[in-house]
Request: fold
Amino acid sequence: MPRRRDIVAIVLIVLPWTLLITVWHNSAITPLLEAQKDGRRDGHSNPRNIFAFKDSCSLQNQGIVEIVHTEYVYSRPPPWSDILPTIHVITPTYTRPVQKAELTRLANTLLHISNLHWVLVEDSQRKTPLVSRLLHGTGLNYTHLNVETPRNYKVRGNTKDPRIPRGTIQRNLALRWLRETFSINNSRPGVVYFADDDNTYSLELFEEMRSTRRVSVWPVAFVGGLRFESPKINALGKVYGWKTVFDPHRPFGIDMAGFAVNLHLILSKPQAYFKFRGVKGGYQESSLLKELVTLSDLEPKAANCTKILVWHTRTEKPVLVNEGKKGFTDSNTEI
Reply:
């Protein structure tokens, strides 16, 4: 009898816990099952779950694999204001292994700028699919142009001939496009800036240049063998010279990334272009600016040229020795 009482006591203790655990388990898993059924019924489910489900099916179907390709397009509309002047950013570019990386980095910066129009000019006979796809995917306001530099002006091999004006003909095409597109009498306020694709830009720089009345200037880092080059500013806040080692007596001893021009001034001076022939290395900027302003007209920005807001950070050329002559990786894969 005592043994029977012990058995009854154990049953009375265990049975309620068993029932409680069973009820809890059913109530916890039922919503998950219902959600999974609803998801399949509606045609929506987590992409990660879709991939896992297809992978398990492929194993059951003797190695038949379904590959899913997803395309991501950055579709956020760029910020725009009817009050702010438009910044027209002119960028020459050319085909090379790091081109897409350089343009992606620059595009990611430009996406933060209100009222921005990107004029991208390829040094090529035709617009390349790589650049066309990249521009389409950014969501930026852009104009895509192309013109090929004549062969006798192109850099050959590893020679660094300062007489070869890389990007000059592309910048000039962009200037011509602006003059053909905008009327001097009816165009909205704007600023023109020449932004190469191998530089790094602070967002503050674009807000600094937006108020340019004629030509604004600022320092540029990592150029001319110096930590930075800069305009010299006197006590009255006027430019009177240039802090540079390379030919400091140039009319405008400034880097391409170190100035911006009011759009109205560009439109009012149709003869102002970068000179393509007969210009010494380092004088490309002067050949344009001499047609637009004098030294006293320049407007110092970046806290009277005491702040660095742009850096000439060229991307290191990638070492591809293991590719060989025929190529080790798939040449059709866009990098």
